[in-house]
Amino acid sequence: MRELLPLSMLGAIVGLDVVCFPQMMFSRPLVAATLAGAFVGDATRGLVVGVVLELIAIATLPFGASRYPEWGSAAVVGGAIAATLDPGRAGTVTIGVLGALATAWAGGWTLVKLRQWNAYLARRRRPALDAGSRGAVIGLQLAGLTSDLVRAAILTAVAYAVLFPLAVYLSARWSFSGPLSRSVVLMLATAVATSAAWVIFHSARGARWYFAGGVVVGLLLLLAR
Amino acid sequence: MTAPAYTSSTAAPAPAPTLPVWAWMTIFTRLLAIQGSWNYESLLGNGIGFCVEPALRSLPGGVHGPAFKEAMARESAYFNAHPYLASVAVGALARAELSGVPAERIERFRTALCGPLGSVGDRLVWAGWLPFTSLVSLAAFGLGARPLVVVGIFLVLYNAGHLALRVWGLRVGWTRGLAVASALGNPLLRRGPAHVARAAAAAAGVALPLAAARVLESGPTLLALVLGGAVLLSLLLVRVHGRIEGYKLALVLIALFALLSVVR
Question: What is this model's ipTM?
Fold first, then answer.
């Protein structure tokens, strides 16, 4: 667990990116899980977990005030778990994805609490804000940013500390083969991504034909390799 | 009486006041943190005040003057927009405040901007550019790209659009002031979401089988079974759309699968 502190710091930075700063999307699972994997020594396995999570994350778009899972810190936890487990054992990617999904769900709850906390702070500073206080505006912004950084750090630390021992336990007793384990998680992720693609894009005229054309190109590229 | 429509027919704004370079740099940096205090009551309001503040320092009397305080109070009130396109509002509001536009007019303008900047940004970025760049990166992964390349493609491609949109928004907001609504009729914003959606649909078609094949690292038979199963399951998910969230379903089913693997 020597990696707990650096992973918490990484989780804090990518967690901050989800909403507050700078929203450059290094909090996307594809990036965050790869970074976490690289942190603990296996970027490729982190990337594989990130790809599976990215497929699932396409379905959850951060529209306005909607509630959505927090993928940044979650992907750090999942990528690090998968990359730390014994690569010779089956199910490491599946276990990493499971850990990330659980963390993403809990992370979504922490985002709601953060927004309620920000509202509480704003209510307390209402008289100063109404008076046009520069200090109140800047102070609220900095308090929100700091709270989010701390939130993401704690989330990553707690999730990794709780889930890593559980992941080791699961990995030691995992009985399904590697191909079966990957097939199940991949089938679910691809189904979520395909349904999300339909829901998001089907209203654009001709999008279904673009999708079908893309599938043909994708399959041809597969055959050509 | 109806509220004035802020369209291209609105009179051309007065010549723009000038702002020092450091003010522009501070405003742009702050735009990256515009959602820092996002909450369910004032939403993006405080963030708008935070971003406009460096410009408001140029008001008569400086930061201690009544003009600055009145403008700060106005600009920190409730506001809602897509975080990237909020730059349009920041530029336009800074221009309006420095040009001495009456307070009631600025408040009506703020209210009128909320809806368009939210819906256009959501369609263009969250439901368009983000999935598109993500799927292009997944296709690169499927074609065998190394981790650094996959991550690099995504970050460079996504942020090229992201940062360009923020810069464009700030610039167009500042140059057009209260007449900025006409800029929202820009072809990029009107037709862009549909074009990006079609490109993303094509990218999804290419990326899904390629990425699945590389993750699976197995033969064509198993890949065909996985993709076939995924298609059937996705049809089910489309039917129950809005009632079941995909990630929660995945969490429950993978947890059950893990449990079965351990206890059998």
Answer: 0.96
